[in-house]
Design brief:
Number of domains: 1
CATH topology: Alpha-Beta Plaits
Low-confidence stretches: 145-153
Number of helices: 4
CATH superfamily: Nucleotide cyclase, GGDEF domain
Order of helices and strands: EHEEHEEHEHE
Largest sheet: 7 strands, mixed
Length: 153
């Protein structure tokens, strides 16, 4: 199997409390998540030149050529979610945690990505607060042009 090593900006996003949301009302949760993807998330990824590598349930792995594009995309999506969640009771809001890392990845022949760059982005997502964007200090702090990005070293 052919593989290519490269540097990429990796964004990992996960819905906060997805199991709780789905167990309360799975049909409504899936419908809202699909609408968010088609109306907000996917178009924003495209505008910022991202590539959806894969989705596993409520989690997404997205590749960008530029960390600036990844951060701008994340800020735009997070701000859009704040607008769409206005007036929605806290227990029914769809919120994301987002981790971003610029690092070395291995691209498999089928387009899947693996390696430290993906692992670190996933770990950063896991420590984020709901609605936040976490990344390594150097990349995200330099790329962020708005107040929605938080940094962790």
């Amino acid at each position: 199997m052919s593989e290519t090593r490269k540097i990429a900006a990796i964004l990992v996003a996960d819905v906060v409390g997805y199991s709780r949301l789905a167990s309360a009302d799975e049909d409504r949760t899936l419908s809202r998540l699909r609408a968010l993807r088609s109306d907000l998330i996917d178009p924003t990824i495209a505008v910022h030149h991202g590539r959806i590598v894969k989705r596993t349930g409520d989690c997404s792995l997205i590749e960008f050529r530029s960390v600036v594009d990844a951060v701008r995309c994340a800020i735009e999506v997070q701000n859009g979610l704040v607008e769409r969640n206005a007036g929605v009771p806290a227990e029914r809001r769809i919120e994301f945690r987002v981790g971003i890392h610029l690092g070395d990845v291995v691209e498999e022949a089928d387009g899947d990505l693996m390696g430290d760059g993906v692992n670190i982005a996933a770990r950063l997502e896991g420590i984020c607060a709901p609605g936040a964007i976490c990344g390594c200090l150097g990349e995200v702090a330099k790329a962020s042009s708005a107040g929605r990005a938080s940094t962790n070293s």
